[in-house]
Design goal:
The chain is of the alpha+beta class. Helices cover 30% and strands 35% of the residues. It has one domain: Periplasmic binding protein-like II (D-Maltodextrin-Binding Protein, domain 2, 3-Layer(aba) Sandwich). A 7-stranded mixed beta sheet has the order 2-3-4-1-5-7-6, sandwiched between helices.
Length: 142
């Protein structure tokens, strides 16, 4: 599918639990056929979304090589990555979970329009995304 949205979620630990709570709170049911040990999932009634459970560091790497459209990872891991990777990633939202700083990030390729379309499809009829009238500025509330 050409318009498949790949979302990276940490495969284990507190970050995974907290990210999954965000999806649950927003009534986005993640389906994983084999349960918590599965590496691939989807969102119910969103056939264009693929969930990839990855190590938090791999999420940063895959955002950097553009094989993920959206990823949740630690801000510290982004800052520890190489400058060439950091320059390719745009932090969209910083989230605080306990003492950890989590970020929602996308590859920074000047694709704010693409992000707008991705989030619009993913969060259709949701309060999370409100596109402003001028330009493609986004106001994301999670």
């Amino acid at each position: 599918m050409d318009n498949l949205i790949n979302i990276g979620i940490p495969s284990k630990g507190r970050l995974r639990v907290d990210v999954l709570k965000i999806f649950k709170k927003k009534k986005l049911k993640i389906i994983s056929e084999r349960g918590e040990r599965d590496l691939i999932g989807s969102i119910e009634n969103k056939p264009y979304v693929k969930i990839l459970y990855l190590h938090a560091r791999e999420i940063i790497e895959r955002l950097g090589d553009n094989s993920l459209d959206v990823g949740f990872s630690g801000f510290d891991l982004l800052k520890e990555s190489g400058v060439n990777v950091q320059n390719k990633i745009n932090v969209v939202k910083k989230l605080s979970f306990g003492r950890a700083n989590l970020v929602v990030a996308i590859p920074d390729l000047g694709l704010m329009f693409r992000l707008s379309l991705i989030l619009r499809k993913l969060l259709l009829n949701s309060e999370i995304l409100r596109k402003k009238e001028l330009g493609l500025q986004l106001n994301i509330q999670i």
